[in-house]
Write a structure and sequence with these properties.
Layout lengths: L1 H23 L4 E2 L9 E2 L7 E4 L2 E8 L2 H6 L11 E11 L12 E6 L5 E8 L14 E8 L2 H4 L8 E4 L1
Parallel strand pairs: 4-5
Antiparallel strand pairs: 1-2, 3-4, 3-9, 5-8, 6-7, 6-8
Amino acid sequence: MIKKIFATIFKMTILFLGCVTVFSFVDGTIPNPFLSKPSIPVLMSEVQKVKIREATFNVDIAINEESRALGLSGRSYLSVLQGMLFVFESSDAHLFWMKGMLFPIDIIWIDENKQIMEIAEDVQPNSFPKQFGSNKKSLYVLEIPAGTAERFNFKIGDTVEFLR
């Protein structure tokens, strides 16, 4: 009997949270429960690909504090044209580390004009707790498999496109 009560409460909680989420999107923003800063437009959630030069990456989006903190930690690999795009509420000198990472990556900092500001290549998992970043302000950060930035000859100043 107790199990049924807890199961019913759990189901009702999930249903309630789903309704809250749906109604939160009515105003065109995604609520961020971790920050009091302005929410990110829903359009950013429609981004599925990032294009730099002739390379187009299928990306997962890290759009809130929880998903940005988790990042690619615990994953065993990224496919060649796969990545993770970190989206921030404001431009800043965002730092990254390799806590929980199992493979090396290239990290690309992108400004609000969608231009590459900084590139850290072949960042190794064993570099933790070292932090990587740029003293230039970025709004987005892209993580891709190690060696990809060099393979496609990405340079500071390259234009980045967000695609569906």
